[in-house]
Structures are given as structure tokens and as C-alpha cells.
Amino acid sequence: MKAYFGRRYTLSASHRLHTDALTAEENRAVYGKCNNPHGHGHNYVVEVLVGGEVGRETGMVLNMALLDEAVRGLVMDRFDHTNLNRDPYFKNRAPTTENLCKAVFELLDGSVEPARLAQVRVEETENNFFEYSGA
Amino acid sequence: MIFLTRRATFSASHYYWNDAWTAEKNEQVFGRCSNRNGHGHNYTLEVTVAGEPDPVTGFVVDLKWLKDVMEREVLAAYDHRHLNLEVAEFSDGGVIPTTENIAIAAWKRLEPAVTAGGGARLSRVRVYETAEVFAEYRGEL
User: Fold this and answer.
1) Which of A28, A47, B16, B83 has a CA-to-CA distance to A94 between 20 and 30 Å?
2) What is the extent of the structural domain holding B67?
3) Are B89 and B100 contacting, i.e. CB atoms less than 8 angstroms apart?
4) Measured CA angle at B98 (ends B32, A75), to 5 deg
5) Strand pairing partners for B39?
6) Is the pTM of this model over 0.90?
7) Among partner residues B20, B31, B135, which is closest to A5 by beta-carbon distance?
8) Is the pLDDT at A13 greater than 80, yes or no?
9) Model confidence over A27-64: pLDDT tens digits?
């Protein structure tokens, strides 16, 4: 029997939406106040959904402690209370929440065995969120 | 195709325990959830049905009808109950009432009634154990 298990985590980080591919003026036009030179921050909610067979002995898709450990080790230790623009992943990518969502998926993919990473959702504020389920 | 979702809450107690294991192994795997005195949650049941809006009413299904189905099929059995001791699918050698198994069990309870209703098919059942933890079942894909 296949089911999904999801868990929400909070991640606080700062960012500035900016790309070197555009001029300063174009950056301001595209990103608006998110282009403020000194950046700003969010309490992101990262929702991780994993899928797999429900273990006959455990009743679980994945032991939550293992998921917590993977998320802490691969995502939280890296991004929580940091400036996303300084992370190598965002060296050539704007740290939009779309890209953060992809980064989280790519970092966790393959590390939630015996389950499979099904989807990552990142909520930037209560009113906007992004989802990625792999390429 | 429109997906329509309705939420309801129920409060229940449970514990995680596998009789085939030693007490030590149960504690190691299930941690605090293995306490045999049980503990409880305010669960949120989220039921999604899929279908086309009726040309006359504009409804995929009548939300009041869906509410009644959820109350009759799931809440009447789970709300203010001890899942391990009082609910058939989890008691007497049934499955462990993890959030995953509750989502699957709720699906099995709901699916015949939703199908019999004729307006839509059951698409997804999601059960939140806390605001941060949930499981979902989409049937046998």
C-alpha cells in the first residue's frame, strides 16, 4: 500500500533578488523592493512530501526521525539563518523561492530511503508558495 | 476536472506498538509514541474529490453531502475514541494507527460512499496529525 508522508519545517534566511544578467535598472524593474541592495528575510516554511510503501511492521512510509535528520543535515544546516545569496547554489542563480524550492529538492533527493522524495513546497509568506516535484 | 476539498477535525488517542517486537525495539523505533498509556491529537481530515461541475447546479458535489459522508463514515468512528482499542481496523491485530495507516483506513471508509454518490471520485485523503505532520493516500495508483 503506497502512501505519502509530509512534514513542515521552518527556515529563516535572508536574500536579495538580483541577477548579474540584468542591469541595475532592469533588476529594480523586475524584482522591485526585493532588489533592495541590503536584502531582507523570510520565515520560510519547507514542506517535504515523501512517498512509498507503508511498512508492514512499522505502519510508516518513513520514520520521521530519519526525515528530520536528512532535512537538518542537508537543508537546515546549510540554509537556516544564512544569507542565501552567499550560498554556492545561488552563485549563478537568483535566490528566488522557485530556485530555493529546487535546491531543497535536489539536496534531499535520494536521501529519504526507503521512501522516495515526491515533492518539496516552500512557502515564502502565508500568501505565496512554490512546489517542485523533480524534473 | 475540478478538485474539491473539505476539511473536518477529530480528536483521538493512540499509541504505536508492534506485538511482534520486544518492548526495547518498540521504544527504539517508535520513541515516545510507544507509551502504552497512549496520547492524543487533534487530527485534521482533508478529503479531496474530483469531477466535473454539474451543468445545472455548478457543483462537483454538494459540500453538505460531503460533510455528512465524512461525519458518518469517519468521524462517527474516530472522534473521541482510542484508535488502538475502539476502532476495528486498528484493534485486534489490525494495523498500527500511524498517520499513514489512518489516511489509508479513512480512504477505505470513504471510497464506497463517495463512489455511490455518483457525482465525483475520491482523489485524495490527507490526515494531519499536527500542523506540521501529515500523511496522504491517493488510492492504488
Assistant:
1) A47
2) 2-137
3) no
4) 75
5) B14
6) no
7) B135
8) yes
9) 999 999 999 999 999 999 999 999 999 999 999 999 99
Euclidean distance between CA atoms A72 and B48, whole angstroms: 31
As a residue count, chain A comes to 135
**B57-75 burial code (b ≥16 CB/10 A, e <16):** eebbbeeeebeebbeebbb
| H/E stretch holding B4 | strand B2-14
Specify the number of domains making up chain B. Answer: 1
In chain A, the number of structural domains is 1
Q: Would you call B104 and A54 a contact, using CB atoms and an 8 Å cutoff?
A: yes
Q: In the beta sheet, which residues pair with residue A15? A: A40
Check: complex ipTM more than 0.90: no
Contacts of A8 in chain B (CB under 8 A): 131-133
Question: CA of A56: which chain B residue's CA is closest?
Answer: B95
The range of the structural domain enclosing residue A51 comes to 2-132
Q: pLDDT tens digit string along B97-137? A: 999 999 999 999 999 999 999 889 999 999 999 999 999 99
Whether residues B132 and A2 touch (CB distance < 8 A) is answered with: no
- pLDDT band (50, 70, 90) for residue A135: confident
Separation CA A104–CA B85 (nearest Å)? 40
pLDDT digits 0-9 by tens, B47-61: 999 999 998 889 999
**Partner residue facing B136 (CB), from A3, A58, A63:** A3
CATH of the domain at A115: 3.30.479.10
Contacts of B101 in chain A (CB under 8 A): 54, 59
A to B CB pairs, distance under 8 Å: 57
